Amino acid sequence: MNRLKDATSPYLLQHADNPVDWWEWSDETFAEARRRDVPILLSVGYAACHWCHVMAHESFEDAETARLMNARFVNVKVDREERPDVDAVYMEATQALTGQGGWPMTVFMTPDGHPFYCGTYFPRPQFQALLTAVHTAWTEQRDEVVGQGQEVVTALSSRGPVAGGGAAEAPAPERLAEAVPSLAASYDRARGGFGGAPKFPPSMALEFLLRHHARTGDAEALAMAGHTLEAMARGGMYDQLGGGFARYSVDASWVVPHFEKMLYDNALLARVYAHWWRLTGSPFARRIALETCDWMVRDLRTEQGGLASALDADSEGVEGRFYVWTPEQLREVLGDEDGAWAAELFDVTGTFEHGTSVLQLPRDPDDLERYARVRAALLAERERRVPPARDDKVVAAWNGLAVAALAECGALFGRPDLVAEAEGVARLVERLHVNDGRLVRTSRDGGAGANAGVLEDYADVSEGILALYGITGDAEWVRLAGALLDTVLDRFGDGQGGFYDTADDAERLFRRPQDPTDNATPSGQFAAAGALLSYAALTGSHRHRDAAAAALGPVSLLAEKHARFAGWGLAVGEAFAAGPLEVAVVGAPDDERTKALHQTALMAVSPGAVVAVGEPGGSDVPLLEGRGLVGGAPAAYVCRDFACRLPVTATADLMRELRGPASEG
């Protein structure tokens, strides 16, 4: 019997009609394997995963393959986005046993959960042969199989908490400086980005480079960031018609994407492009940031006000079909003259498969009015195509990242509708995901999921709502962030200054997951450090600041040789090195002078600067306490560690203060 029909995960529901007797991950699953005395076959993937769909079609929808699976195994389906803890520990085992990893992940394990054979995608003939071989080994070489599983568990479990190299403190400025040549060593000077194909958007490393330039004036840091940001957004990885980025480029030139579009990538990138604009004034950066935000709202917003996780790579069973064009299709939509012009502009020269092309924009058009008309016509025509499926579960962490991006882009670019969207997302998370300081990982269709939030959920939601507070002045968000971060300190600590990825009362797996390095999203530990630091800057809490510093311990180890995997830790380290600056804006919210000071404060490029805004005596946020009007006029106070310079009332004076060091005055 297939038990997935009542699942909340869209990925699991995609498999609800398979002839495989799928189980969800549960205690009952393991009990069934023990009762039958058979191994567990664990299959881990996610809804937007192209090769997951391929293996499902080839094997899990095939009656003979299902017969072999059902007769010889208890089969478990896991959505890695719902259970990142399960994914993490078994991916660690897969990489240890095979030297590589990816999705779909295929793990054979004992009824005790000990993995003894791992892999990823298998074509059907190989998969059927593997099922038979594993069954034979289980029945004829049981002791050897169980022993191998125990060896894997023992080896992985012997890895204790991740140490910070004895440095349970924020990285020194010289360590941060070492990260720039570390990144430069793998920097693609011809095409932007780092390393070769496939190329993923290095969002966290780019945020570090922008912050490092803002603090030090390092020209190389800005050049690497700017070149990469422009190359990504001009290539096929960026949707030139609808906005938003695909998950990665399969080539080194950002031409052909892996077409799935993830919320987390776009939330991170929208914010980075906004910060690039804030630093340089680039109109291109502004356009990409806004188009990416508009795409998130248009294509991912759920009926309840949250943001869905992803769009699939495939439509009508074909990867990329929704997005690609031929010259003939352009002429059919636009006519011969505009069609030829568009084909040249968007480099429609057969860059993908079967004569189709992914649209690129190697250069800005000379005729912007014509460009807008052509683009609108192509987008309207594309909307008539069958769209990719949407994974409409709401993940707390990724919605937290989006809250920060939407709020900041809305404030910086004069788009109050985006700030309102950020507030709506935050309210949805607060309503469905938060209960007494604890988070659940996902929700769907207005109902909360059953899986506990992990460290990145607490950290990224806190990061998002603290950014939202700096824009709206609603102190409720500071209070909620405080409750979530107290849970981080009380439930996730490893006793050595770091954090585990799961709480101390979470389900016990064979290893408690912990990884301080970034992946496609900021590591939970470094994200927690950033949120803790921002909260400390608003409240003066030494407990939170000290915890943030300790969590950054691994950054000093990683900066010189592995900076690509510590981008967010380096970015938070830049905030530490800069203070961060604390800006308190005091005045009536409807006073134009207050609004002008507030907007100027939000334009501060100092890394990690926090902004508090409110009426005199009207807020319980500590940074605002004791800060009053000056001569009856709204005022701004620029501080570091709650030591402030003299208040200013003019925006020009505030701009000067934001460029200079804060000290007591």
Could you report the average pLDDT, rounded to the nearest whole number? 95
Separation, N- and C-terminal Cα atoms: 73 Å
Shape: globular
Number of strands: 21
Q: How much beta, percentage-wise? A: 5-15%
Helix content: 40-55%
Residue stretches low in confidence (pLDDT < 50, at least 5 long) are: none
**Structural class given helices, strands, pairing?**
alpha+beta
Largest sheet features: 5 strands, mixed
Number of helices: 25
Quaternary structure annotation: single chain
Please list the strands of the largest sheet in the order they lie side by side. 1-3-2-4-5
- Please tell me how large the radius of gyration is: 26 Å
Describe this structure in words.
- The protein is an alpha+beta fold and about 675 residues long.
- About 50% of the residues lie in helices and about 10% in strands.
- The strands form seven sheets. Strands 1-3-2-4-5 form a five-stranded mixed sheet, sandwiched between helices.
- A hairpin with a 2-residue loop joins strand 20 and strand 21.
- Helix 4 packs parallel to helix 6 and helix 9 packs parallel to helix 23.
- The radius of gyration is 26 Å and the shape is globular.
- The N and C termini lie far apart (about 75 Å).
Write the layout of secondary structure elements.
Layout: H1 10-13, E1 22-24, H2 27-36, E2 40-45, H3 50-60, H4 63-72, E3 74-79, H5 84-98, E4 105-109, E5 115-119, H6 124-140, H7 142-157, H8 173-185, H9 203-216, H10 219-234, E6 248-249, E7 257-258, E8 261-262, H11 263-280, H12 283-300, E9 310-311, E10 314-315, E11 318-319, H13 327-334, H14 336-345, H15 368-382, E12 390-391, E13 394-395, H16 396-412, H17 416-433, E14 434-435, E15 438-439, E16 442-444, E17 447-448, H18 455-472, H19 476-491, H20 524-539, H21 542-551, H22 553-558, H23 567-578, E18 581-586, H24 592-602, E19 610-614, E20 635-640, E21 643-644, H25 651-659
Parallel strand pairs: 1-3, 2-3, 18-19
Antiparallel strand pairs: 2-4, 4-5, 6-7, 8-9, 9-12, 10-11, 13-16, 14-15, 16-17, 18-20, 20-21
